[in-house]
């Protein structure tokens, strides 16, 4: 809890929220809406009922982890804020760290699932390496932009909340 006159650090909750929300966007758009890949689609075919079941289960576990990340980020943020909620949610610092967290999600998920384990790719096919590299590049860009915005933004001052 921030005492009067303290500034509030939203770095950890912002990064955790960004990781969860980045995962949601990946799962909703790339897995479900565009159907470019599923969790294990490079290892287990989606062309059979059993394969689709296993990939759907993997997608469900993935979404559960991203959902828990969002809940944890919200709890962490809420536990630090007793006053001044409007200042927190309207602060560019929080949104910057969320963008940074989304970048970390893209970078880590892209390196682990796409490159190291090869369990799926952003879009399988002749240009899958370029799609995977674009996903990794978006992670690096989000991390950098989030960090720069947070660094240049004024910390959240709750002294007049």
Automatic annotation (TrEMBL):
Name of the featured protein: DUF2243 domain-containing protein
Keyword Isomerase in annotation: no
Organism, as annotated: Novosphingobium resinovorum
Key words, A-Z: Membrane, Plasmid, Transmembrane, Transmembrane helix
InterPro entries in UniProt: DUF2243_membrane
Pfam family, one: DUF2243
Transmembrane segments: 12-34, 60-77, 89-108, 128-150
Membrane found in the keyword field: yes
